Structure formats: C-alpha cells, structure tokens
Amino acid sequence: MRFFICLFFFCLILVSCGKDTMLSKGYHNLTSRYNPYFFANIRMDSIEKAIYDSKKEDYNRILDVSPFPEDTNALKTYDKKSEDCFKKAGIIYNRHEDGDFLDKAFIIIAKSWFMMRKNDQAINTLKYVNTKAKNDEDKSWALIELLKIYTRTKDYKSAELTSNTLLRKKMPKNLQWKFYIARADLYRKQNNYVETAKSLGSAVKLMPRGEYRGRMFFILGQLYQYSGKQNLAKENYSKVLKNNPPYEIDFYARLYRAQTTDLNNEKDIKKIEKHYKRLLRDEKNKEYEDKIYYEKGLFSLRSNDIPNAIKHLRTSIRYSKNPNQKAYSFLKLGEISYNPLKRYQEAKMCYDSAIAFLPNTHEDYKVIARRQKTLEEFVKHLNTYQTEDSLQKLAKIQPDSARNAYIDAKLYWQESKAQNEMDSLQRLAEQDKKRKRISDSSLGEIATNVSAKGETKFYFANTNAILNGQKEFFKKWGNRPLEDNWRRSVKPIVTTNIDSTEIEPPQTNVRIDQAQLREQEIRKRVEIKRKELLKKLPQTPEEFKASSDKVEVSLFELGRIYRLKLQETQNSTDIFEVLLARFPNTKPEPEVLYSLYLNNKDLGKNTESEKYKQILITKFPHSSFARMLLNPDYLTEARQNDTKVKELYGNAYNNFKVGNYQEAQTYIDEIFAKYKENLIDDKVNWLKIMLKHKIKPDRVELQADTEDFIKKFPDSSLIPLLNPLILNLKK
User: What is the Cα 325 distance to its own chain's centre?
Assistant: First the structure.
C-alpha cells in the first residue's frame, strides 16, 4: 500500500513539473512565494528599515517624509545584502518563470539595482514591469518604486509625470497609502508644503495604526504649524500620541503641541509654563534640555516677551551639547537682534556662530549666509567709522593729562562691565556644577538604595564601605588634597579619631580682599589698553588724512548698506548727510545725492527730495544719476543701445590706436548723433578729447578739458588715471 501511495505522489510531482498546467503553476507559485521571494522581500525590508533607523533627524525643520541618504555612496554598507537580495529574486526568473511572482521578483531586482547605485538598470527594469506585468497591482507597485527613484535622484519632472499617471490608476488600499507617501515625499523635497500636506492627509486615512503613521501625523502637525494653522497642528500632534510613537517623536509632539496654545487664554498659558517646568524636571529629558529652553524662547517670542525670549535662547546655548541645536538657537537670537531690535553688531555675532554650526545642506543656508555676509560687511564699516572717528577726537584732546584721564575713565567703565559679565558667567558655571552635583548625589542615593536591597559586595556601590575607607585614609594620611605624588610631600600626619574631631584647614593671618583684587586687576588692564590705544592715535597730517579717508569710505558704504540691504531708509539718510557735511567734495557725491533724493521721497519728505534732485542736476548734469532723474527711461534706452555703442566705440578705439584719427572721429560722431543715452558715456567723451588733441595738440587746452571731464564725470573709473596726467600738465 505504501508503495502505491509513494508512486502516486511521485507521479503527481512529475505532472506538476510540466508547463502550462494548473498543478505546474501551483507548484511554481508555492515554491517561489515561500522560498526565494519570501527571503528576498524580507532582506529588502531589513535594508530599508536599517536606512530608516539610521536617519539623523533635525526636529527644528519639517521632517523628511521618507528619509534617505543624500549621498548614495552611503548605501555601500548594504551592498552585500543588496546583492544577496538580487540573487534570491533572480532564482524566480531562472527556475520559476511560469509562476505569478516573476513580476514581483523583477521589482525586488530593480530595488536591489538602485541600492547598488545602478540607477539606469533599476529604472529600465521597473518600466519593463509596468509594460509587461500580468496584473495591474504589480504595474502600480512598479510605478510607485519608479516614483521613489526619480524623487531620490532629483529627477522631479519625471517623478511628477509618474505621480500623475498613478493618480489615474485604481489600486488596492495597501498600495494607495504607499503612493500618497511617495507623492508627499516628492513635494517635501521641493518644499511644496501645501501639496505635501494634501498627500499626507490622504495617506493617514488609509495607513494602519503604528509608529510610521505617527510620523506622518507629526509631519502634518509641523506643516500646519508652519503655515499658521495652530488648531490643525494641535489636532495632528495629538494624533501622533495615539499611534504608539517612539519616545523621541512622543517628546517632540508634546513639546510642539504646547506652541499651538491660544495666547488669549491665560489659563492655557499657565498650563504651558507648568508643562515646560515638568519637562525640565524629568531626568529622561536631560539630553533635550537645550531644546526645551529653545521652545520656551519661541513661546515667549509669540507673546512678544523679547527679554525672556533672549534669556531662554541664551540658556539653550549654554546647556547645549548638540551643534545642530546651537545653530538654531544662535540663529533665532540673531533674527531677534536683526529685527525688531536692529542691534546689528549683536546680530552679526549670532549669525557668525549660527553659520559655524549650521550644516550647509540646510534648505535656507544660502539665505542665512547672505545675511551673515551683509552683517559682516556692515559691522566692519561701522567699526572702522567709530574707531577712526574716536581716535581723531582723542588725538585732538589737549593736554596729554586730560586725554589720559578721559581714556582711563572710558576704559575703566568698559573693563568693569566686562568683568561683571565674566563674574556672571562664572556664577552660571558654578550653578551648573551645583546642579550636576545634585544630580550625581541623587544617582548616588539610588545606588545606595539598590546596594542596601541587594547587599552588593562591589566596593563603589557600597556607601558604608566608601565611608569606612575615607576614615581609614584620614587616620593615616590626614586631610590631603588630590594631587600627583601625594605620598612624597612632607605632610603633617593627623592621628586624631575622625569620628570625634573635625579636621580644619590650616588658618592664615593674611586676609584677601576680593574686591581689592578685582579693582587692581581692572586698573592693570586699563593701563595696558591705554598704552595700546595711544600708539594708534594719528599724530601727523598724513596720518589724519589716512584716517579721514577710511571714515569717508565707511560712511558711504554704511549709507548704501542701510538703504539697499537693511532697508533702513532714515538711517541711510542720516549717514549720507553726515558724509556730505564732513566731506563736501566726496568722490561718490552724485550717487549720494541720488540716494538722498530717493530716501526722502520714500519717507514722504518731498521738499527735501526735490532739493537734492536740483543739487544733483545742477552740479553733475552729465552723471548717470542726473540723467536717470531727467529721463526716467535712461537706463532702458542705454541698455538697448549698449551693444551698438560698444561696437562703435571699439571701432573708434582700434582706429585711434593705429593712428586713423579721422576714421575714429567718424565713429565717435555717430555715437553722439544716434546714441546719446549709453552706459559708457565717460569713455566716449574721453576718447573724443584725446582725438581732439591728437589732431591739434594744445597742452593748456588739454589740461582744461581734462579738469572739465573730471567735473562732468566724477564717478568715472577713468579718473584715477587722469589725476597723474593733470599733475604732469601743470609742471
């Protein structure tokens, strides 16, 4: 009987191995599904989970929907697993081609190609599946994976086309939410927050409950909070907590939910303040202490409590060991100093620190770096102006004793202030140490309790053993400080019983007055700095001239930065007026007058604006700035004529160089006749003067023409070359 049963099953297997039979297909499906496909899929899932778990989150920005390394070389770590995954999926192609899992195997193969940085092979394989697959589900899955690859390789145009194709497809629920996640990732990479929120909103309705769904709710909360929709943000942060998130996401969801509090409700505000205190007391949040203070600062900022916002942000920086968080705290401090406080020197220092810590992959890095450069330039010119101006004023104070007394008074105030700040920082450092000691002692008590319960024999976990050891040490060696070679020092041996006598440090008759020491230290620093300052004072007329030149340049640059980069119109006006008052014949006077015309016009001071307009037109009628006032279309016409004018000028100059003066004159005359509005008017006029004096030389007339040219075109780049010529002509 057994023989016939075995023979029957043997025949059944032979039949199932034939092609195009139901048994054959069932055999291949069973074998491929529960062997190569199962293990290939499991291995690919493990790779993707490892990538997901290795992500370094930046909770100060909106999280990535699907974290993936920017540098695909980081995937080299998974090459061996990816190759193994590729081989296992390949078994289906080689041995079980007739089953229903071939198309799924190709998708796994494509994912393996991508993990091994063979993007073209991966894309072609997925396109093949989409074209040749037997069922729509596999086609949709292939397109979803294709969408992911296009997004990760930043081929957003192809990704958009693929996404739109998928929108028109009918898919099972488990593929629908994966598609919406992939689509959200595409828009998040492009910082299109509206479309990201729409796609995530569709995804979370279909996703199974769990950690990954909680992450999507968290991102939705961030997106709504960013767009100012506080109620929706609060709602989504609350949903995070219902999806069993890991502690970190749970912590940040609670922290950010606090920011959505209605500021008009005093009870809610008090609840949030208590919430922050509870978070700071919780030992589990020790590593997040800097972030909690940062959020406290933001909350104070929402309430327009700027002093407290600054205080909390500085505390965040002081406690932070996380460079990334330090960057954001410095950045927010810089933003506050920049606007509304307009303390640009403080803002510059904060931006310098922020840029030092901020990764250059940050999406706003270029904007932040540009502002930092602007502030750096501004502070450089401001310091130059203030320093040189102060040095000139100090140099004019007579006699020397009066000047030294004035300098000492100023320096003493500065050094006292600096010392107070140092003392304050030292007190804060001591408070931090005290907090750490309290924390350590709490841990010690825990260890003692554990020791008492478990009766451990480990010395350092047994408080009684440590105390007994200390007593024995004092009996033999006395109260010795912790230092190298402590046995070799000559020390008095104290044999008094430690239990009955308290050891006191040796007394001294010399009493140190800390206030007196502090005063001496400040006076010493004042004297050193006074000597250094006196060396920098200008003494000779040449030194005063060099110092004044620096002041002139700095005032002009400050006025321009205030107007063009900081949009501080009134400050720009004040600085330019100081420049004209101190340096009436300043070289960039036409531009300064033009800027004052625009500034006063923006400020609604039409009388002042008209005054500067008339001065500019009267004094510098040939300057480009005067032309812009006389002809509003000057720049447009000049730019339109630019190509032709440069061509004619080039022909004129080339003929001038080889001595064809009449031919050169013809080209210059054409420019004057047809293209009066041009961007190189100064060069055209100077070439005309040179032609005149080449054809009919006259030394006296050349000097007069050159001086007239300088008056007409004070902002010309040719002037530095002409000044030596005038000096030579005057000899």
Answer: 11
Cα 547 from Cα 532, distance rounded (Å): 17
CB environment 685-700: b (16+ within 10 A), e (fewer): bbbbebbbeeeeeeee
Helix extents (H) in 98-190: 102-115, 119-132, 136-152, 156-167, 173-189
Task: Compute the distance between CA of residue 138 and CA of residue 121 in angstroms, rounded to an integer.
Answer: 18
pLDDT at 637: 80
Q: Are 397 and 403 in contact (CB under 8 A)?
A: yes
User: pTM surpassing 0.90?
Assistant: no
The CA dihedral of 103, 109, 113, 119, to the nearest 10 degrees, is 0
Quote the pLDDT of residue 101. Answer: 60
Q: In the prediction, which pLDDT does 5 show?
A: 54
For the ranges 161-165, 192-196, 694-698, which has the lowest average pLDDT? 694-698
Contacts of residue 703, Cβ cutoff 8 Å, sequence gap at least 6: 726, 729, 730
Equal CATH topology for 541-619 and 634-730: yes
Q: Which fold has domain 634-730?
A: 1.25.40
DSSP class of residue 731 equals: -
| 268 compared with 239, residue with greater pLDDT | 239
- CA separation for the pair 85, 98 (Å, rounded): 21
pLDDT interval class at 34 (50, 70, 90): very low
Q: What is the pLDDT of residue 675?
A: 83
- Judge whether 491 and 478 are in contact, CB under 8 Å: yes
Chain mean position to CA 324: 9
Domain boundaries, the chain: 20-134, 429-477, 541-619, 634-730
d(Cα 272, Cα 513) in Å, to the nearest integer?
46
Residue of higher predicted confidence among 700 and 347 = 347
Confidence class of residue 415 from pLDDT cuts 50, 70 and 90?
A: confident
Average pLDDT, the chain: 82
Q: How many Å separate Cα 690 from the centre of its chain? A: 54
Give the max Cα distance, the chain.
Answer: 135
Please say whether the beta carbons of 549 and 543 come within 8 A.
Answer: no
Q: How many CA atoms lie within 13 A of 181 on its CB side?
A: 22
- The answer, yes or no, to whether residue 283 has pLDDT greater than 70, is yes
**Under a CB-based contact definition with an 8 Å cutoff, are residues 629 and 594 in contact?**
yes
Tokens of 660: 């064809």
Percent of the chain scored above 70 by pLDDT? Answer: 81
Distances in whole angstroms, Cα of residue 86 to Cα of each of 73, 79, 488, 635: 19, 10, 70, 64
Average pLDDT over residues 69-83: 83
Name residues whose C-beta falls within 8 Å of residue 159's C-beta, 6 or more positions apart in sequence.
147, 150, 151, 186
Render the burial of 642-672: b for 16+ CB within 10 Å, e for the rest: eeebeebbebbbebbeeeebeebbebbeebe
Give the length of the chain: 731
CA-to-CA dists, residue 256 to 215, 243, 298, 299, 537, angstroms? 14, 17, 10, 10, 55
| Angle at the Cα of 87 from the Cα atoms of 86 and 92, rounded to 5 degrees | 100
Angular region, 154: left φ>0, alpha ψ -120 to 50, beta rest: left
Report the pLDDT averaged over residues 653-681.
86
Residue 440 has a pLDDT of: 56
Name the architecture of domain 541-619.
Answer: Alpha Horseshoe (1.25)
Residues 255-278, mean pLDDT to the nearest whole number: 89
